[in-house]
């Protein structure tokens, strides 16, 4: 069964197209959680990188930045990227990387490693919760057939 959403102009869109249109995402995003140093107009600030793709980053904790501001962001002392602010709302911002990353770029490899570590932790946590739930069910007698 296919689901469609009616757009404001009366046409129909698939839900994924709607999300991609409103979120302006062309590339797959990967969740990370790391502190970086963002520099703009000679001022440095600590930010938290929360997701990434080959074309950009989403960061939290920004102050005083506006759309189109040129930035440099240092992920580690040896890995820095350049880009511009694509959007900002409150303390959050999207960064368009200039140039985009390819999958062999050291920053992409570093970020992918960080995302993989987060995913492994998520899987371990879910497995532990499932094990605890199964143990609780067995103790209460609900787990037997």
Keywords:
single chain; 145 residues; alpha+beta; six-stranded antiparallel barrel; two-stranded antiparallel sheet; 8 strands
Order of strands across the main sheet:
3-4-5-8-7-6
The helix/strand class is alpha+beta
Please report the distance between the alpha carbons of the first and last residues. 35 Å
| Helix fraction by DSSP (H/I, runs of at least 4) | 25-40%
Helical stretch tally:
2
Radius of gyration: 20 Å
Biggest beta sheet attributes: 6 strands, antiparallel, barrel
- What's the order of the H and E elements? EEHEEEEEEH
Q: Tell me, what's the shape?
A: elongated
The average pLDDT is: 84
Spans where pLDDT lies below 50 across 5 or more residues: 1-14, 16-22
What is the total tally of β strands?
Answer: 8
Strand content: 35-45%
Summarize the structure.
With 145 residues, the protein is α+β, with helices and mostly antiparallel strands.
Helices and strands in order, then pairings?
Blueprint: E1 5-6, E2 12-13, H1 15-23, E3 30-40, E4 43-52, E5 56-60, E6 70-76, E7 79-89, E8 92-97, H2 106-140
Antiparallel strand pairs: 1-2, 3-4, 3-6, 4-5, 5-8, 6-7, 7-8
């Amino acid at each position: 069964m296919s689901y469609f959403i009616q757009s404001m102009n009366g046409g129909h869109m698939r839900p994924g197209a709607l999300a991609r249109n409103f979120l302006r995402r062309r590339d797959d995003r990967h969740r990370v959680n790391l502190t970086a140093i963002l520099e703009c107009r000679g001022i440095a600030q600590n930010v938290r990188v929360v997701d990434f793709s080959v074309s950009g980053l989403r960061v939290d904790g920004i102050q005083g930045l506006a759309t189109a501001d040129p930035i440099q962001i240092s992920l580690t002392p040896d890995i820095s990227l350049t880009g511009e602010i694509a959007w900002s709302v409150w303390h959050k911002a999207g960064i368009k990387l200039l140039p985009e990353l390819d999958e062999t770029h050291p920053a992409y490899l570093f970020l992918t490693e960080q995302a993989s570590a987060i995913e492994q932790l998520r899987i371990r946590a879910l497995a532990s919760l499932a094990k605890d739930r199964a143990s609780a069910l067995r103790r209460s007698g609900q787990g037997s057939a």
